[in-house]
Specification:
Chains A, B: One of its GO terms (molecular function) is pyridoxal phosphate binding. The structure is a homodimer. Chain A is about 40% helix and about 10% strand. The first copy, chain A, is an alpha/beta fold.
Chain lengths: ~500, ~500
Amino acid sequence: MPASGATVEHPRESIDLPIEPEGVDLFLSAPDKKSHGEFLQRVQQMLLDHAFQSTHRESKVARYVEPERLKEIMDLDLKREPSSMEALIGHIRDTMKYSVNTGHPFFVNQLFSSLDPYGLAGGWVTDSLNPSVYTYEVSPVFSLMEEAVLKEMRTIVGFTEGDGIFSPGGSIANGYAINCARFNKMPQIKEKGLHGLPRLVLFTSEDAHYSIKKMAALQGIGSDNVYLVKTEANGKMDVRDLRAQVEKSLEEGAVPFMVSATAGTTVLGAYDPIEEIHEVCKDHGMWLHVDAAWGGGALVSKKYRHLLRGIEKSDSVTWNPHKMLAAPQQCSTFLTKHTKILSQCHSAQAQYLFQKDKFYDTSYDTGDKHIQCGRRADVFKFWLMWKAKGTDGLEKHVDRVFDSAEYFTEKIRGRPGFKLFVERPECTNVTFWYVPPSLLGKESEPDFNQKLHKVAPLMKERMMREGTMMMTYQPLREHPNFFRLVIQNSSLNHNDMDYIVAEIERLGRNL
Amino acid sequence: MPASGATVEHPRESIDLPIEPEGVDLFLSAPDKKSHGEFLQRVQQMLLDHAFQSTHRESKVARYVEPERLKEIMDLDLKREPSSMEALIGHIRDTMKYSVNTGHPFFVNQLFSSLDPYGLAGGWVTDSLNPSVYTYEVSPVFSLMEEAVLKEMRTIVGFTEGDGIFSPGGSIANGYAINCARFNKMPQIKEKGLHGLPRLVLFTSEDAHYSIKKMAALQGIGSDNVYLVKTEANGKMDVRDLRAQVEKSLEEGAVPFMVSATAGTTVLGAYDPIEEIHEVCKDHGMWLHVDAAWGGGALVSKKYRHLLRGIEKSDSVTWNPHKMLAAPQQCSTFLTKHTKILSQCHSAQAQYLFQKDKFYDTSYDTGDKHIQCGRRADVFKFWLMWKAKGTDGLEKHVDRVFDSAEYFTEKIRGRPGFKLFVERPECTNVTFWYVPPSLLGKESEPDFNQKLHKVAPLMKERMMREGTMMMTYQPLREHPNFFRLVIQNSSLNHNDMDYIVAEIERLGRNL
């Protein structure tokens, strides 16, 4: 027996591999060259073609079909019998044809968009390796890569030490924040639960993402115990109201334990004043979380990182590279300045997975910090993008999307038919009403808002059916429906902004 | 203006696309043919080669390198400057080289393995479309596909009606179960939280997955309020002890609200007796959840579905196609027979995303049932596999992995040096000690268990360093470390089982 560590070429002649005849191996779970090579190659060619076509301005953003009709076209039902290779290729073609091209330049509908070629390649590689990131043993490369990316992101935030994890989306990352904040206040909750404890209360603005309430409900705190703080007209948290609500909760005998500030609100793109909120947290011993899922990307820009001034004073941060930094869905992180809390708060020390008698340094087995067990590697696509572009490239990307939003804002400011919701947008969200010709000049009529409320849904229907653009709309508080343009795609330029303005006018001209 | 619904070819001459000169476009977020086509094609060829090589029996399962050394090799740090294309190709090559080949036939280490070619193609397609599944508007195909897959899975479980969602792993799916069960008992918890309520208690076996405790901690119930029910020698829940513990909780003044039975425990592969547990739940008004994350695959087999007898009487089920059915990581579902509870329990009705004044039937906007907002489409890879193989193919796959496990069990039964932990394994987990030559016949010596405990870690180190196989070990309760072979790869055959036995003997022969 050679010494441990040596490579041995031992005989394997006993393993005679029966090559399955073509056509009967559909139930096998490892590709063979004969019958799967052709299939995989054909799919790869389709993907390459699609990557270029679907991001081309001359192509459609989407090919809208009603749900019932799409069910017929797609033949979605699952049957007992296998399908032929041609049928499978057809299914893939239909899936591509009827899916929305989220990489298209005129998909400005969500807080994610674009199709980054390095991110795409990274995703393909990840699929091919099919990892689950919980132990160094099973995911050596991705475990270390997560450490490197999270460390660099913490450095950019301004945390000199700390910890971090990848999360399946910003909502769950915000849930991690709630759990850490709660554990920090009352560590016994992990074992004993909330039973018999005073009522816990946390604070976030009325414009914060809905996940704060959703996760508070899941975590047994209750959505009513998320106190919503008023915002100013531009969507920033009103810190005087925060102070008042904290006082109120104390008078009620509750325990205020956390504020979730937002850096880039979902609709208006507002950045809450982190430094002022930090003062309130300090005064009342509350955990300061910053939900920078969307607006965190600005941190890589010398020009725009002032928007998050004070973030280094926070206890934790949600930051999704799949949003402003345009990594593929899904790439979401939770960062904290506290070095041990993620382990303390979440670990369950399962003996079958996190054995302590392994032969390597098990501090690299980071899985127990998570609430997930099996977990996809969301890191590689972002790491590869970052390597490809460098931090300089990420900065140029961010500066360019801000530039597009600023150009668009100035273009529609004062333009007939356009009315900005936020006069001076802070992020790349540009929110505005389009007032069609038939309503222009009728702003004082009593049913104006009621009529304006119906304009955006109608225009959205038209852009969907024609496939020329996708941009979302929403109401907010007492305000009627308005549009939100939102930009994370740095291949967009001023000409594209001109196109979007012209397209809005075209879609609404006879309303 | 043509009628809504028509396709218009309107002029786009104003959009003059400046083609960026090669080399300066690294920060753009849409692929262009000139500089990215070559890169993506090279990556595709590498992936194709890797898919075949990494699943070949003559290749290594892993190429183990110590963490500190791997950090040096991989150049993981992120820099300000961009990288060249050659450097990126090198990074991808290294990532493949040093990652574990989880698709290799001799990766029998976890509850997932293999590399299904249809699943792989499905993953690549999903990456290329970069969807987020929350609204029909943004993900028409995947929204309908999820509905079709979840419906068919519910049918196979035996639920005549109900609902379901995809989840980022079985742990969070079990958390969904806890939340539904709790909401079912006391719906006010969603808004009001657990404050002021009696202590809630749930039950699962001592061999159940650690996620039950982890999620109970996250959800404010507290890990101590997960009462662990004793198991019998083969790992099945002892229903008399369950009854006793429920009684005990009632005497304590607590509110028992849920039992989580396991169908295929993580280590021993035991199937809890669902029908008997259902009787206890009925008697005490408790929600019956079945964590079939691992063992649920047996449901597609006429020969093995009896293992889950009574599952149709449960309230909810966790079932991960990425485990026994060998879909790629990650593909995990939560199914329930209750039609409305997922919406009631989780919805937050965000107005910016789930607008009710859309032009289509918004019942297809299923995102609000989830705790995630943005969410990857995990459905397509599994749907494509299922289409490719048919349910018949899935059944053959399951029958084959059971056959391999049974062959292995009989091969080692009574073989010198091997001792089965569970004499008659129910699932494809085969658990056993390997007693090396130096310890054979010394079973009655006082330090035998202590010495045996060290054998599996040493053999694991050897197999990792040589890359010939990966199989896990763990202790359980008072028992010393033992091996767990676990099979989800239907390309494994009897010869492979012979190889694994021979390899174990080779690795342990001088211990």
